[in-house]
Amino acid sequence: MDLVQHERWPAAAVAVAAPRTRVRERTGGIRPDLEQVFRSDYPRVVGVAARVLGSREQAEDVAQEVFLAFGRSSVPAGEAGGWLTVAAAHTALNLLRSGRRRSAREDAVGRQQPQEAPDVADAVVSGEERSRVRAALARLPRRQAVALVLRHSGLSYDEVAAALDLSVGSVGTTVRRAEARLKEELDRDASSH
After folding, report:
1. Which pLDDT tens digit goes with each residue over 95-132?
2. Half-sphere exposure of residue 105, counting CA atoms within 13 Å on the CB side?
3. SS3 for 29?
4. Do 31 and 14 form a contact (C-beta atoms < 8 A)?
5. Cα–Cα distance for residue pair 34/15, rounded to 1 Å
6. Alpha-carbon dihedral sign for residues 136, 15, 47, 156
7. Backbone CA torsion sign across 23, 25, 30, 35
8. From CA 120, how far away is CA 112, in angstroms rounded?
9. In this predicted model, what pLDDT tens digit does every residue of 136-166 receive, in sequence order?
């Protein structure tokens, strides 16, 4: 069955790009195991990205990029789950960071122009809190941010260790440091407002 015509996944979900991909030399076509890997790992990839971004639509865009990169890579199918999960976290964090920079530019322009009406998001405290957490997460060191996202996405210590090339014993330390750093970032953000 052609992935593009599958009813459960968006047509563009077959195309994508993730960080640091081992590029596969090929003369054309897609790798033969892409459909099987896509079917088994798409929900987890979207889930990880959605936890970082808070948007299913953006998470599906990230999944597209990640699966395109996987399709171009030489990552063995047996290692696909970990690779895709880390790639989803990295790509989502990159999207968050670029969004933060864009938002800062837009805010600078907005301060130059009078506000016509209050932003609806300001009225929703929980939405504002999620935004603060995402912004703080984007300021963490990459390894800590990815470890935190993966662990809170339901991966075991063994899976996080394998995905990040860490010892199992250091996963807990990395996650605890990430949580502490996230709290510091949130406190710093709260004190600046």
Report:
1. 888 865 555 555 555 555 555 555 554 455 567 787 88
2. 6
3. coil
4. no
5. 11
6. negative
7. negative
8. 20
9. 888 989 889 898 888 888 888 988 888 888 8
Which phi and psi angles does 119 have, rounded to 5°?
-70, 135
How far is it, in rounded angstroms, from Cα 82 to Cα 46? 14
Measured CA distances, 141 to 75, 90, 178 (Å):
25, 11, 8
Tell me the three-class secondary structure of 150-192, residue by residue. Answer: HHHCCCCHHHHHHHHCCCHHHHHHHHHHHHHHHHHHHHHHHHC
- Does an H or E element contain 90, and which? helix 80-112
- Per-residue pLDDT reduced to its tens digit, 6-33: 334 443 343 333 334 444 444 456 799 9
**Phi, psi (rounded to 5 degrees) for 73:** -90, 170
Give which of 70, 61, 73 is closest to 9, Cα–Cα. Answer: 61
Backbone angles phi, psi at 15, to 5 degrees: -100, 135
Instruction: Please state whether 57 falls in left (phi above 0), alpha (psi between -120 and 50) or beta.
Output: alpha
The predicted-structure confidence for 122-135, as pLDDT tens digits, reads as follows 455 567 787 888 88
